[in-house]
Amino acid sequence: MRTSIRTFVGAALALVALSACKKDFLEQDPSQLFTADQLKKASQWNDGINEGYINGILSTFFKNGQSSSRHDDFAQKAFDISSDLMSGDMELQGGLGYGWFQEAARLLSYKRDGALNYAVWRISYRTISMANSFFRSSTGDTTPPEVTTEPNLKAKRMKDIFDWGQVKTLRALAYLNLVHFYGKPYASDTKSLTVVPIYAATDDASKPQKLATIEEIYNQIVKDLTEGIAAMDVSGMQRADRQYIDQTVAKGALARAYMDLGKWSEAYAVANDVITNQAANYPLIPASELTTNGFNNYKTPEFIWAIDITEDITGSLRSFWGHMDIYTYSYAAVGARKGINKYLQDQIPEYDLRKNWFHPKSGIPWNKFFSATGKPIGTMADRTWLSDIVFMRMAEIYLIASEAAARNGDDASAKTILLKLLKERTAADKYSDVETAITALSHDELLEKIFYNWRVEMWGEGLALTVIKRFKYDNKRSARSLFFKEEAIKWDDSRLVYEIPQNETTNNPLIK
User: Fold this and answer.
1) Using an 8 Å Cβ cutoff, are 319 and 397 in contact?
2) What is the pTM of this model?
3) 58 to each of 9, 40, 52, 79, how far by Cα in Å?
4) CA nearest 105: which of 118, 88, 121?
5) For a FRET experiment, which of 152, 277, 303, 475 has its CA 20 to 30 Å from that of 383?
6) How far, in Å, CA of 296 to CA of 286, rounded?
7) What are the residue boundaries of the RagB/SusD domain, all occurrences included (predicted)?
8) Averaged pLDDT, 141-166
9) CB atoms within 10 A of CB 85
10) Are 119 and 21 in contact (CB under 8 A)?
11) pLDDT tens per residue across span 206-217
């Protein structure tokens, strides 16, 4: 995919044209993109058009500058930093002179005129717009291309079916971002609340849509993912590498959605299927490499979906690494640091190897996120900004399966699965003690232990806010935080839900 991404960026950038904006804040069919008819005609004489377009959709998850020229505008990983800061598990420690991510740390990014708010809406609907354009050029978004036995067409048709499944998954991931940021957690008393519009391929792209309910959004997400998985299964194809979408990525996203919905049996079934069939392909980062991996290489075996950052697509200062890695020449290295909540850090026992991810005094992730070429501290040696980014890894799947089993009353399975993770996160001479302790946990103690592992294992990876809300945890900021020192923020604080952006309410008369 290294070559295909370079080809996309160099030769097909006009296809994506992520910088300009029409009057309508929600761009259903931006003038800078291929129209569905153009895409359909072009694909008839160039088999690479569909792949280039899918690369374009993929790029909406990592391309910087899609909504502004700000240095906290780099798509999904910027969303991840924002939500982790909002959760309180990540704390902003300095860099007030720069201002990046202050909105999130101060719980102001929810505001309808906020830049971080704008980015989630604009980029997510950009993904949806491009996906719908793809579907309009194909067979629509309800039925995949038909299987054929025609020898001259079979290979291309199977690729078309696989591509259709990839795009269904990417659209679902965009809606998942939207409902996480703009919706309250799904529950019997919230599911009927309106949240964001749904746009289907059959909709008139020039006309705005009304707000859908939280339940309708999740129905769309689950439908896209299940249909995407089925299509990719039927195709019998495999992705070129882990930068593309496949069934495992789609199943991971589906498990996330089921967890949001409280559908524990379904979440467990999907996550356990991934573990059973894919654990060997995506083995956990072993204990011996936990503090030397750096999370900087997309080929890390545990990574299910990750992007190879090259010179063509690096965001340089404007990147996840620029804001998180103290060894990379950028904001974290000169003071705008983000560290783990001290109260959470203090919970990590000495035998938990993840304790060494974080600096003992400041809590910065000096041994979790670091450039392969940047050490030692103070040198800011990495000035190439080529460290890769990860969107999904196997540890999350273990945690989903463990929590879902426990919430469904199957504590034995929950403990067994959790211990598979902890085997690679515990000092070898202490694992027997940990195993004994986990086995003896009561149901409530087990859920508390799973909650702890979510927060430590996935720290800095954009999952903390949804986990905090699911466990209904009021998170207390520590004295190291620039804002809300020693203050507990309630899990259902209104500032943890984004308002619909001002530009959208202005341009969409169906939103009041």
Assistant:
1) no
2) 0.92
3) 12, 19, 10, 16
4) 88
5) 303
6) 16
7) 349-506
8) 93
9) 26
10) no
11) 889 999 999 999
